[in-house]
UniProtKB/TrEMBL annotation:
Domain (Major facilitator superfamily (MFS) profile) ranges: 29-484
Protein name: EmrB/QacA family drug resistance transporter
GO molecular function list: transmembrane transporter activity
The keyword Magnesium belongs to this UniProt entry's keyword annotation: no
Transmembrane segments: 27-51, 63-83, 95-114, 126-145, 157-176, 182-205, 217-236, 242-263, 284-309, 321-339, 351-371, 383-405, 426-448, 460-479
Pfam families hit by this protein: MFS_1
Keywords: Antibiotic resistance, Cell membrane, Membrane, Transmembrane, Transmembrane helix, Transport
InterPro entries the record matches: EmrB-like, MFS, MFS_dom, MFS_trans_sf
Subcellular localization: Cell membrane
Gene Ontology CC: plasma membrane
GO biological-process terms attached to the record: response to antibiotic
Gene3D superfamilies: MFS general substrate transporter like domains, Multidrug resistance protein D
């Protein structure tokens, strides 16, 4: 009797230590994944505030300067889907670390660039590394946290990184450019990338993947990668060629033809690159479309609100970053704390609807900013609902988008989610900036002052952005009602007690 009695507490303590160790390991892995993702997301906006310094330092033309951004966006948007599927086939840990290494090395090359050619080439490689890293991150998060309550918290952390990283990039880019030089917006990635890659090798669980023989659709890979890269290229070039030009229509038609050929290929391929069963869930399909519309609308804030602060209110780079920072704070407060609890209690649809409503209202409020506006009176009251709304909507969409993903398909589902975000952002930037520019030119032609004309252009873009998110809200209202997350079984709640009893 005595050995049995004395052994039970020891066994219970062992289980307790094992369970605690597993918990710590999972959250450590999430921290590494989010560090890598944050580095990639920051790069999407940290460059924007440094563009004037880059142009002056290494001699970019006005048209060539846009390709400091576009050279990154084209491979990033084009390779997300393929990278996500590769994660399923050869192992997501391997793909994630490879992406970090490529991104970090390319960042170093960007930082030491002394001419436009070298910088653009390095940015292209950086876009490849960013796509490979980002494509598998959400899939790994979902796999790490299978229980609904923990998954909601983990997706909240991931969504915060996705949502707030852009605002943080504006602040970091302005500070680094003003205090040191534009080179450091790239150099800062190097130590972060090295540490993240080393830690990823230690804390991420190794996995073999399902094997290349389960999905080596080379023709499909070529079709979808070509379609996405050509599509993103077409969208970003509309600023120079216009939407109805021969260049835009011909390249757009070619991208669409490649995409249709890819879909046809997937219906017949023995080992499809993108199993179409991923889209059988209405929640998943709708979440992808809603996300593209939401991100497209939000770009009227992420890009044009920055221009309003700088060109109309005359903020410098650092003050612009500080002006946008309340959005990051609001997103963090919602996505890290409140949204996961609400999603676990009421379901993602119930949380998504008020989130999209707040974003719509925030953009509508920005559409009324005057030329002689005040940040505290006119801008800040609009930014707070945007931050709160995005903090609610992003975790909800990520939960819906991954709701039907199996462990074998989580990489491709993650890649699709990020691809729709990139397509939405590229489309939103191209459409809204074009409309703002053309309306500003018309106002200047009619005799308006520069500040009034610029403000009028931004107001139009904010109205269009609000309309896009309103459409997303209408689509979200048609989603089936999602039940609250099921409570954890008793066996999951008290593993220590049960094991100790045994």
């Amino acid at each position: 009797m005595t050995p049995v009695t004395s052994r039970a507490p020891l066994e219970g303590a062992s289980v307790r230590r094992t369970d605690s160790s597993a918990q710590t390991s999972r959250w450590s892995a999430l921290a590494v994944l989010c560090a890598g993702q944050l580095m990639v997301i920051l790069d999407g906006t940290i460059v924007n505030v440094a563009l004037p310094s880059i142009q002056q330092d290494i001699g970019f033309s006005s048209s060539g300067l846009a390709w400091v951004v576009n050279a990154y966006l084209v491979p990033f948007g084009g390779l997300l889907l393929l990278s996500g599927r590769l994660g399923d086939l050869i192992g997501r840990k391997r793909v994630f670390i490879t992406g970090l290494i490529v991104f970090t090395a390319a960042s170093l090359l960007c930082g030491v660039s002394q001419n436009p050619g070298m910088l653009l080439t390095s940015r292209f490689v950086q876009g490849i590394g960013g796509a490979v890293t980002s494509a598998v991150t959400l899939g790994m998060v979902v796999t790490l946290f299978p229980l609904p309550k923990e998954r909601a918290k983990a997706i909240g952390v991931y969504s915060f990184v996705q949502s707030a990283g852009g605002s943080m990039g504006l602040l970091a880019g302005g500070a680094l450019t003003q205090t040191i030089s534009w080179h450091w917006i790239f150099f800062v990635n190097v130590p972060i990338g090295i540490v993240a890659a080393l830690l990823a090798g230690r804390v991420l669980a190794s996995e073999r993947g399902v094997g290349l023989d389960k999905g080596t659709d080379v023709i499909g890979a070529l079709l979808i990668t070509s379609a996405l890269m050509l599509g993103v290229y077409t969208i970003v070039e509309t600023a120079d060629y216009g939407w109805t030009s021969v260049h835009t229509t011909s390249f757009g038609a070619a991208a669409l033809a490649l995409l249709l050929a890819f879909v046809a290929r997937q219906t017949k391929a023995t080992r499809p690159l993108l199993p179409l069963r991923v889209f059988r869930s209405r929640n998943v399909s709708m979440a992808m479309g809603i996300q593209a519309l939401m991100v497209a609308g939000m770009f009227s804030f992420q890009f044009l609100c920055v221009l309003y602060l700088q060109k109309v209110l005359r903020f410098d780079e650092v003050h612009t970053g500080l002006g946008i920072f309340p959005v990051s704070v609001a997103i963090g407060a919602l996505s890290l704390g409140i949204a996961p609890k609400l999603i676990a209690r009421f379901g993602p649809r119930a949380v998504l609807l008020p989130g999209l409503s707040l974003i719509t209202a925030g953009l509508a409020a920005l559409s009324r900013v005057p030329a002689g506006g005040s940040y505290l009176v006119d801008v800040l009251p609009a930014l707070l609902p945007l931050g709160i709304g995005f903090g609610l909507a992003m975790p909800s969409l990520a939960t819906l988008a991954m709701s039907a993903a199996t462990p074998q398909d989580s990489g491709i589902a993650s890649g699709m989610f990020n691809t729709m975000q990139q397509i939405g952002s590229a489309f939103g930037l191209a459409v809204l900036s074009t409309l703002a520019t053309s309306h500003t030119a018309a106002l200047l032609g009619s005799g308006a002052s520069t500040a009034s004309a610029l403000t009028g252009g931004y107001q139009l873009a904010f109205r269009i952005g609000s309309g896009l998110v309103a459409i997303a809200l209408l689509l979200a209202a048609t989603l089936p009602r999602s039940p609250a997350a099921a409570p954890r079984p008793a066996a999951e709640k008290k593993p220590v007690a049960e094991n100790a009893a045994r």
